[in-house]
Amino acid sequence: MDFYGFNRAKAIANCGSLELGLARDTNNVRAWNRLRPEHIVELLHGAAADARQDARNLAAQISRGAWRIQTHAPAQGKANQLVSNAREVSVTAGGRDYRLLLNEGAKLQLERITQSA
């Protein structure tokens, strides 16, 4: 199946991070630190309107070559703070690092993509 005109299966197969957890339906993902390639593809596909152009560009990157997922561990000293609904995941593709800013409500949704310096 295609997403943004790119081959979904090829994009997933290009990911080198398959060890990141169990496959789950993205509508029910609560263990956001266990995102797998298929989750990232679904998040790109269902990106918020403001992030769709960047999601399309990143979809092109991951469809063409190798990419990796990196989740961020909580910062030291923040373990006792209330949990936020905002999540951040990094994707490395095409020699660039991208930060995917997610919002966790009833399901995860991609809100914004920024390029790391």
Write the layout of secondary structure elements.
Layout: E1 2-3, E2 6-7, H1 8-13, H2 37-45, H3 52-64, E3 67-71, E4 86-93, E5 96-104, E6 108-115
Antiparallel strand pairs: 1-2, 3-4, 4-5, 5-6
Provide an overview of this structure.
This protein has helices at 8-13, 37-45, 52-64; strands at residues 2-3, 6-7, 67-71, 86-93, 96-104, 108-115. With 117 residues, it is an alpha+beta fold. It has one domain. A four-stranded antiparallel sheet has the order 3-4-5-6, with helices on one face. The chain has a two-stranded antiparallel ribbon with strand order 1-2. Strand 1 (2-3) and strand 2 form a beta hairpin. It is globular. It starts with a strand and ends with a strand.
Key structural traits:
3 helices, 6 strands, 29% strand, two-stranded antiparallel sheet, alpha+beta, four-stranded antiparallel sheet, 117 residues
Quick overview:
With 117 residues, the chain is of the alpha+beta class.
Strands, count: 6
* Mean pLDDT across all amino acids: 76
Which spans of ≥5 residues are poorly predicted at pLDDT below 50?
18-24
* CA-based gyration radius: 14 Å
Question: Describe the biggest sheet?
Answer: 4 strands, antiparallel
- SSE sequence, one letter per element: EEHHHEEEE
What helical percentage do the residues reach?
A: 10-25%
Q: How much of the polypeptide forms β-strand, as a percent range?
A: 25-35%
Tell me, what's the shape? Answer: globular
Counted up, domains total 1
Structural class: alpha+beta
Calculate the terminal CA-CA distance, rounded to whole Å: 33 Å
By DSSP (H or I, 4+ residues per run), the number of helices equals: 3
**Strand order, biggest sheet?**
3-4-5-6
